[in-house]
Amino acid sequence: VNEFDIIARYFDRPCRRDDVVVGVGDDGAVLAPPPGSDMVVVTDTVVAGRHFPEGTPAEAIGHRALAVNLSDLAAMGAEPAWMTLALTLPEADPAWLERFSRGFHALAESAGIDLVGGDTTSGPLSATVTAIGLVPAGGALRRGGASPGERIYVSGTLGDAGLDLRGLLAGEGPDGHDRFLYPTPRLELGRALRGLAGGVIDISDGLLADLGHIAEASGVGARVRLADLPLSAAVRALEPGDARTLAVSAGDDYELCFTAPPSAEARLVALEAGVNLTCIGDIVPGEGVVLMDEHGRDWHPAHAGFDHFNGGAR
Ligand code: ADP
Ligand code: MG
Q1: Which ligand is the nearest neighbour of the Cα of 26?
Q2: φ and ψ at residue 140, rounded to 5 degrees
């Protein structure tokens, strides 16, 4: 199979949206954004051996390459619309491409996003998705919107993806590690938070690092009650310090962390966004993120989060 066979067989799919004027097949895509909306543009790359271990199932790589981008759109409160895919492959392996594209297109379909172009090259395995989402004009959610007096919330549970990755790296095989391999972008929640949340971010690098970005962008401090972190039974079964370190710094959970005023509590409880929300702390004047144990003492994890240019850790 050559480059054009790959595109035609695995990536040139009919577009479902009627605002795609020209999709795959020309020198560029032509899109007609609906009037009255802002476009939110995100891009994220996944690299073999860096974002997922060698030997990760191709279907999961396809899912993940898109999921991490959809998670960014969710954090901005955007509705996914269009995307491009730049794929670099060590070889043209039809069985691998079949599985990769199955994982990729299944998530695309469920999110209502159309693939309108891309690039296909040979080299070390990586996939870059650029996704565009829509919000009502002026309605995008931001990291910098948090204010003192607001409460801090997270969706779902934290630390599961880190625990899954640990299992994969220990050679446990790909089954039962879905929170790492198949993250769920919280799109419905992100849209529901428009007009309700102060600061919003998705948790890719770990709660401590990502809540730190909200605090910094908003010019505020954050106080987190460790005892209130939402943990799954599997994470709760670990040694408590280990469980907390995974929950605050392993990352890859792709849950949303956001702030909202106490007056929003009733509306948050009423949200049916397909995921649990847990209040874990408060926004305060000042700066930085303080993690408090059950005795009210500051607690520090063994490592703070993921950093590509610092040996993979902070
Ligand atoms: P050009 O040489 O003009 O840059 P290409 O030969 O790279 O065009 O691509 C041909 C068409 O196929 C373009 O419309 C491009 O957007 C699309 N395309 C290439 N690779 C992919 C891919 N992995 N997924 C989706 N569309 C792709
Ligand atoms: Mg061209």
Answers
A1: 1
A2: -65, 145
In the sheet that holds 288-292, the strands lie side by side as 200-202, 256-260, 151-155, 277-284, 221-225, 288-292
Kindly list the averaged pLDDT for each block of 10 residues, start to end, along the chain of length 314.
93 96 97 97 95 91 98 98 98 97 98 98 97 98 98 98 94 91 97 97 97 98 98 97 95 97 94 91 98 95 67 49
Looking at residue 118, what is its pLDDT? Answer: 98
Backbone phi, then psi, for 116, in 5-degree steps? -115, 5
Report the nearest-CA residue for atom 2 of ligand 1.
27
Q: Is 117 in the pocket of ligand 1 (CB under 6 A)?
A: yes
Contact yes or no for 10/98 (Cβ under 8 A) = yes
260, two tokens? 């909202």
Give the pLDDT of residue 312: 55
Mutate which of 12, 88, 120 for ligand 1 pocket (most atoms within 8 A of beta carbon)? 120
C-alpha to C-alpha distance for 268 and 279, rounded to whole angstroms = 10
Q: How high is the pLDDT of residue 54?
A: 84
- Residue pair 313/208 in contact (Cβ under 8 Å)? The answer is no
Ligand 1 near 115 CB (within 6 A): yes
pTM: 0.95
Which one, of 23, 139, 123, 138, lies nearest residue 81 by Cα?
23
Grouping H, G, I as helix, E, B as strand and the rest as coil, residue 76 is coil
Neighbouring-strand partners of residue 61: none
Instruction: Find where tokens 């106080």 sit.
Output: 223
CA gap 241, 70 in Å, rounded:
31
Which residues make beta-bridge pairs with 33?
none
Count CB-CB contacts under 10 A for residue 251.
Answer: 22
Does ligand 1 have an atom closer than 6 angstroms to the CB of 28? no
Predicted pLDDT at 183: 97
| DSSP helix/strand/coil, 288 | strand
